[in-house]
Amino acid sequence: MARMSPLFRRARPEGDRLVTLVRKPGCHLCDDAQVVVEKVCADLGVPWESKDITEDRELYDRYWEQIPVVLVDGRQHTFWRVNEDRLRAALSD
Fold first, then answer.
1. Distance of CA 70 to CAs 38, 51, 54, Å?
2. Cα–Cα–Cα angle for 67, 52, 83, nearest 5°?
3. Model confidence pLDDT, tens digit, residues 31-89
4. Domains of the chain with bracketed CATH
5. Do 37 and 87 form a contact (C-beta atoms < 8 A)?
6. pLDDT confidence of 16, banded at 50, 70, 90?
7. Residue 68, preceding peptide bond in cis (omega within 30° of 0)
8. pLDDT grade, residue 2 (50/70/90)?
9. What is the DSSP letter of 90?
10. How far is CA 42 from the centre of its chain?
11. pLDDT of 43-57, one tens digit each?
């Protein structure tokens, strides 16, 4: 089983979800991804956060070729384009 990076470990009650959008400034795909993440998370009542790869060397080294990247509970869900139905399904499990 893959270990979760300490960057994404959260002290959350069991069953709580967290979506992380890894992005960078000036990225139009990142802006598009954020619209989808905001909508789905608002609809489902799931918290989300945004992380800037230009401010975090570990994120940059890991994801710079894939941004935007969406993580669900610290695990990579998708990159480049975010499919609303797929994200909604992942958060509804």
1. 12, 10, 16
2. 40
3. 999 999 999 999 999 999 999 999 999 999 999 999 999 999 999 999 999 999 999 99
4. 17-92 (3.40.30.10)
5. yes
6. confident
7. yes
8. very low
9. H
10. 14
11. 999 999 999 999 999
Residue position matching structure tokens 């609303």: 84
The encoded tokens of residue 25 equal 């400034």
Per-residue HEC secondary structure of 15-77 comes to CCCCEEEEECCCCHHHHHHHHHHHHHHHHHCCCEEEEEHHHCHHHHHHHCCCCCEEEECCEEE
Length of the chain: 93
CA pair distance 54, 13, nearest whole angstrom: 30
**Would you put residue 16 in left (φ > 0), alpha (ψ -120 to 50) or beta?**
beta
